[in-house]
Amino acid sequence: MVRPRNELTATEIVAGIGSGQFTAEAVMRACLDRIETREPEVAAWTYLNPDQALASARQFDRDGKGGPIGGVPFGIKDIIDTADMPTEWGSPIHKGRQAGRDAACVALSRKAGGLLLGKAVTTELANRRVGPTRNPHDVTRTPGGSSSGSAAAVADFMVPLAIGTQTTGSTIRPSSFCGIVGYRPTWGEHRLHGVMEASGSLDTLGICARSVDDVALYRDVLLGIEPQPIPETSVPPRIGFCRTHIWPKVASSTQALVEDAAQTLAKNGATIIDAELPDEFAELTDAHRWISSFEFVRTFTWEIENHRDRIGDGILANRIADGLAGSFDRYIEKWSLAERLRLKMDSLWQDCDVLMTPGATDEAPVGWDAFAGADLYKMWTALHVPAITLPVFRGPTGMPIGLQFFARRHADRTLFAHARWAHRVLG
Amino acid sequence: MVRPRNELTATEIVAGIGSGQFTAEAVMRACLDRIETREPEVAAWTYLNPDQALASARQFDRDGKGGPIGGVPFGIKDIIDTADMPTEWGSPIHKGRQAGRDAACVALSRKAGGLLLGKAVTTELANRRVGPTRNPHDVTRTPGGSSSGSAAAVADFMVPLAIGTQTTGSTIRPSSFCGIVGYRPTWGEHRLHGVMEASGSLDTLGICARSVDDVALYRDVLLGIEPQPIPETSVPPRIGFCRTHIWPKVASSTQALVEDAAQTLAKNGATIIDAELPDEFAELTDAHRWISSFEFVRTFTWEIENHRDRIGDGILANRIADGLAGSFDRYIEKWSLAERLRLKMDSLWQDCDVLMTPGATDEAPVGWDAFAGADLYKMWTALHVPAITLPVFRGPTGMPIGLQFFARRHADRTLFAHARWAHRVLG
């Protein structure tokens, strides 16, 4: 039986088009058909233009240009600028806003042959107020935020690749909740021009995909470099099981899943080490709060001064209240702590190739709490290390939960190699 | 004799309006009158709307709102977004572009009572191709770039404050060439949302002003914090005279001016130390090139892919050629070197409060070479340390040259304190 084109990975699509098995138009049509069927329930998209998407696919087929993601449809979080679609940041303040150019990540995707399908739902300003998106595995549940639409669309086979962003856990969490591979790169490697800033010293792009190979491919495309295959690992990895001070906040059912996975990985040859970080790393949870809110409230001065009544209460009561309360001295103190611990972290990888922790504290909750379990992510995001979550668990009610790995800063390719090994082992 | 209002500093304007000596409208009118007289020769502005500026001043006078820069006209480099004016990046590609919102730095200025006067000329994409601006001290000469209009407008008494940016020497150089106080803050402290990115890991805002006090005031406004006066120094500073590996590229006449200044400062009580940085710091000159070009070419993928024919030859032959030639491995290697040396630099301030070097290698050249002496700035900018240039020298033909000071990262207020002391001594 032929798999529906919309269920193929990006890597498979590139191969299929390259070998003449099918056209980019056929893939785009399959994605659009899936969206037509499912979008009323999932609500992953804030802007779609099927005619425009199909026209770009036909053009691609005519030109025969190829490219590393040649003919692959992709979606982007609606805080990312595009020349030919509105970019609204999930905010009524920016309704209909036209950026007039493509963000760096969009232009790099198009240069590599990618076909922009549409803009995916973001929570308001990539923060608290949620959009309409629902979890494709159970539409009574949240898909997670803030990259809600990006994760849901990839999970629901509407598109094989989507770009999100992460300032706390905004790519890893929805990827875990929706049961896909989610990746947060080493901070600073990808250009963010044309992407709405939330908190510049923490923001990165995020990639939502359905395989580790796709993540690795798209990461290189977004770096503007020639994609290279993930290296094969010669020996199973040394994995630091890193529970951290957040472990008590992880659901016991999730704890059990990760403990089990550790045993399975060990049985398959991995070395599992109980990895404990020095105590002071726990301070980064609080540091993340003060860094992110200090920056957020300044970034959005225009919105706050001119359109306060159109900003959600959740942001006003949290990020904005914190940001107005936090002093500059505290900001610099926390920023400097984070910088120092990043350097210290670089020296802590002698015994481990990767570190391991859950991708979320629990299954996606019923209802609209898109930001459940936020404390899990803060320390890691402040450390600027790359993270990937793999969809290998099912929770008590059958909803997906991810297993998360980290590597040393700039060792993203090492992370992919070991994550792919773990994904093969855990299925 | 009453000094013309357009020649007052921001600090003087705030005091004068506050005490009822004059109105914001009178100040704005004086600035606009100056512009009307001088703009045909200096060409500092790319967008002016005198009616809009006057209306905002009258509104300010009616509201009586005050604020740290209440009633002070300011200009901004035309790579900074505004809700009510076009933002064109010095590029024909972006002619007439409307951003639809204010950049963080503009919104913070307005929140503090500042009155936006207009958009100042930038070189193309804050890079090679120069705009029409001429040096107000001698219109046959360049004002320096890339913040050409911001520096020229402040120097020519068209406006007391202007925002520029710096990725190499783009605020310090034009400030030195035009004879004003120019300041480049510690990297990372100010939000850059709404400011065109050139090379994100090096970009900062820059401030052009006519006094150190004004720079300190505006820095706090742009940080979104309550401005604090510069602390008085209790003893003269310990100044590291830091010639660096670039010294042979400094004109001998400039070398002599700085050597003389060192003697004068010593006579007035400063401790002058011959400061030598470890050899490896010289590698940052080359590192700056590869970091900035790798980032630049990716940031501008949309422009390069869609409008290559409207990009200047100078950028294509330099930044873009370098950026396409540079590998990712080299980029990460240079980025990591810069990060390591920043931390090392933090430990090198035991003997010195500030370091001292020229603000430019020479006077502004005759003609259009807006980027003369670029190597002087690369290491310092890559180190992320704050810099200030003071207009204390005249070169062989009578053109201004600045004296530049640096301090430890995040010690910008210390820098101001010692720079103000030096400015008083050197006149």
Structure description:
The structure is a homodimer of 427-residue chains. The first copy, chain A, is α/β, with parallel strands linked by helices. The first copy, chain A, has a domain of 219 residues: Amidase signature (AS) enzymes, CATH 3.90.1300. Chain A contains 14 helices and 11 strands. In chain A, strands 1-3-2-4-6-5-10-11-9-7-8 form an 11-stranded mixed beta sheet, sandwiched between helices. In chain A, α9 packs across α13. Chain A is globular and about 60 Å long. In chain A, 62% of the residues are buried. Chains A and B meet through α4, α9, α10 and α12 of A and α4, α9, α10 and α12 of B.
List the helices and strands and how they pair.
Two copies of one chain form a homodimer.
Chain A: H1 10-18, H2 24-42, E1 45-48, H3 50-63, E2 73-77, H4 104-111, E3 115-120, H5 148-155, E4 161-166, H6 172-178, E5 181-184, E6 204-209, H7 212-223, E7 238-241, H8 252-267, E8 271-274, H9 283-299, H10 301-307, H11 313-325, H12 328-346, E9 354-358, H13 375-382, E10 387-394, E11 400-406, H14 412-426
Parallel strand pairs in A: 2-3, 2-4, 7-8, 7-9
Antiparallel strand pairs in A: 1-3, 4-6, 5-6, 5-10, 9-11, 10-11
Helix pairs in contact in A: 2-3, 4-7, 7-14, 9-11, 9-12, 9-13
Short description:
The first copy, chain A, is α/β, with parallel strands linked by helices.
Q: What would you call the shape of chain A?
A: globular
CATH topology of the domain at 5-223 in chain A: Amidase signature (AS) enzymes
The tally of helices of chain A reads 14
List the strand order in the largest sheet of chain A.
1-3-2-4-6-5-10-11-9-7-8
What kind of sheet is the major sheet of chain A? 11 strands, mixed
Largest interface: A-B, 45 and 45 residues
Q: What string, H for helix and E for strand, traces the elements of chain A in order? A: HHEHEHEHEHEEHEHEHHHHEHEEH
CATH superfamily of the domain at 5-223 in chain A: Amidase signature (AS) domain
Oligomer: homodimer
Number of strands of chain A: 11
Structural class of chain A: alpha/beta
**Approximately how much beta-strand content do the residues of chain A carry?**
5-15%
Q: Architecture of the domain at 5-223 in chain A, CATH level 2?
A: Alpha-Beta Complex
Query: Tell me, what is the CATH class of the domain at 5-223 in chain A?
Result: Alpha Beta
